[in-house]
Amino acid sequence: MKNILIFMLIFPAYILASDVQQTYNVAMSAYKSKDFKTSYDLLSKLYLTKLSDVNLNFALGMSAYETGHYEIALGAFERVEMLEPANLRNKLEKARTYFMLKMYEDAELGFKEVLDNPMISENVRKNIELYLSKVSKVQQKSFTYATISLDWIYDSNVNYGSLDDTYNVGSTAYPTADERSDRALQLSADIMNIYDIGEANGFALKNRAILYLKDYQHEDDYDVQYLAYMPSLVYKYTQYTAEMVVGVDAMTLGKELYLKTVSFMPRIEYAHTNSLRSIAYFKYQTKFFQQSTQSDLNSNHYELSYAMQDILSPRSYIQVNIVGVQEKKQKGSRIDVDYSEYKLNTIYVNQFTPTYGGELYAEIKKRKYDDYSSLFDSTRDDVSRSVSASVSAKILQTLRFKVKALYNRVDSNQDLFGYQKYTVSAGIVKTF
Length: 432
Known about the structure:
Blueprint: H1 2-32, H2 36-46, H3 54-66, H4 70-83, H5 88-100, H6 104-115, H7 122-138, E1 143-155, E2 166-169, E3 172-175, E4 182-196, E5 203-216, E6 224-237, E7 240-253, E8 256-271, E9 276-289, E10 299-313, E11 316-329, E12 339-350, E13 356-369, E14 381-396, E15 399-412, E16 419-431
Antiparallel strand pairs: 1-4, 1-16, 2-3, 4-5, 5-6, 6-7, 7-8, 8-9, 9-10, 10-11, 11-12, 12-13, 13-14, 14-15, 15-16
Helix pairs in contact: 1-2, 2-3, 3-4, 4-5, 5-6, 6-7
């Protein structure tokens, strides 16, 4: 009799738990297929039984947002933040919800908090910029922000000294340049202004300026000064974001003005699902070398890129890029200008905790020059491999410490151009 009573007490609870799990599975399946009405109806009935379930609360928040239940969405995102403070995606969605609730100051603070993190991807950064432009429009102002980095760098091979001690021309061997290492200070600044000129889905104007300085302690000939200005017109409509970027820049090498370029780049991003995106661009750039002895290096640069980005979790993503490049000289007979290049790279980013984040990057690149070298009795083929890892730590809300290590190796069928180098950097990143 006692066993029967225990069974009568446990069996209904088992049936209830089974029903809850089945409903949960149906709701999450509907969420993943973007049937937000169904997922909202089911999850809004379940969440009290799973208040500590991060995935359920985030899916409820997104489903509520997409169906216009913004107060419910805000509550769900706030629960996620209490359970997972490092969840950058949740912070972004909460800021979007503030915007829809017309809580513009809270929205601006939320967007800025995400924007301050260097771990976010470039396309997420662009979407935040668009939202901030809309916040600024409502508040009758444009929005400007800046990122400034100051780094100490050690470079093991500043002059790209060859892998081999000698290189051959015919049967004669000649010595290569020795590798020269040095330390440098590096300063970079990225200033952005955005202004909304459309409705909720519409146009925005963006102005961007970049400054980059690298000052070696001894190898002054390799000091770099770079300045770029890139205005663009951005258009966002539901799943699409399109951008037309125009760029002008100038670079100084050592103490001499070295290169000026003009470019334009149409770019498009398409969201397949909530977590999967395609990003593609085409870039045309014309290069003008400034020293009279280098005028025959002037060239036209063509670049086509496609990337697939997968948001693995609200704290991490992986992105794979395939890029094709072609460089064509404008005049002259130099053999070291025209080339075709193909590269594949991948980046993995994870914001492990509210304080610490990390990034891994790897790339392989193959470059083939078009013109035959009578000196080396061949055309030149290079294969490059790069690997880097970095870790950042938040010191203050808008101040981070970052450490990065990079290894790069180039193997060439013309031994003179093969080299390897590693760089280590440590510095701070400040956002305004």
